[in-house]
Specification:
Elements: E1 9-10, E2 26-29, E3 53-55, E4 62-63, E5 81-86, H1 93-98, H2 103-120, E6 136-139, H3 166-170, H4 172-181, H5 188-193, H6 202-233, E7 235-236, E8 239-240, H7 242-248
Parallel strand pairs: 1-4, 2-5, 2-6, 3-5
Antiparallel strand pairs: 3-4, 7-8
Helix pairs in contact: 2-4
Length: about 260
């Protein structure tokens, strides 16, 4: 069974014969430089990177890769780290550094971190650097020069890459606090108003299910009445001609 965070939209992608992830280390946050609501990793044959999760600014997180397996988002950290990409990062360097993760993104990051804590003992703390011994929640730039410390893993060869930006880095303590207190549950109205990874609205889905169930209930009632009437008509001497009833019974599906 796949290791999935409860509530996330599960949209698995092909990862081939991907190695298992070494558990218990932590979570790394990235920004995607994208305004997409669902950033699906490309075909495996041409893919150079992928991610366990994508966090849109609104709506449920989308999970693409089983957390028991590695993703290709954090270079030397891939063997042990869960990673999410997040909507945002568009515009200039100034805009990137000023942009925060939304409340929705912070809540989902906290939910993922808490799941890792509860299921594999990841500590609810900030990663100070990208050294292999560092555990908890950190951001991509910890493994990027000039922020990478001596002995730290290289998480990107793009020196100076600012991912995910100054303001997002400053939100790490807030996300950890959300994970510690468990104050990261989504309000049901937010879920109904949001769209999932395939653009479906949860309230629309609920209404569709209600409509289908109502139609089925009406069809069942009509069929029961039809069976009773046919059985009565085909009764002769107290015996029901079952085949005759079956031959005349027709259920017409709703168009």
């Amino acid at each position: 069974m796949a290791n999935i965070v409860p509530g996330a939209v599960w949209q698995p992608v092909d990862v081939g014969n991907r190695p298992a992830r070494r558990k218990g280390r932590g979570l790394v946050g990235h920004v995607a430089v994208s305004s997409s609501k669902n950033l699906v990793p490309g075909p495996l044959a041409t893919r150079s990177s992928d991610w366990h999760f994508y966090l849109p600014k609104t709506g449920p997180a989308v999970q693409y890769i089983d957390m028991d397996l590695q993703c290709w988002a954090t270079s030397a950290g891939n063997a042990s780290l869960v990673a999410f990409e997040s909507e945002g990062g568009m515009g200039s360097s100034v805009q990137l550094n000023a942009e925060p993760w939304t409340d929705n993104q912070c809540q989902w990051a906290a939910r993922i971190l808490r799941h890792l804590h509860d299921t594999e003992g990841v500590p609810l703390q900030a990663m100070p650097d990208s050294r292999p011994t560092s555990r908890g929640f950190g951001t991509h730039r910890l493994g990027i020069s000039p922020w990478r410390v001596a002995g730290g893993e290289v998480w990107s060869s793009a020196n100076g890459k600012e991912c995910p930006g100054n303001t997002k880095v400053s939100q790490v303590p807030h996300i950890i606090q959300l994970a510690q207190t468990g104050d990261n549950d989504m309000d049901i109205s937010e879920m109904y108003g949001a769209r999932d990874g395939q653009g479906r609205n949860w309230l629309d889905f609920q209404n569709l299910v209600t409509s289908v169930l109502s139609d089925l209930s009406k069809q069942v009632a009509a069929t029961q009445a039809q069976v009773a009437a046919l059985a009565k008509a085909q009764t002769s001497g107290g015996t029901v001609d079952v085949q005759a009833v079956a031959d005349q019974l027709t259920i017409v599906p709703k168009q």
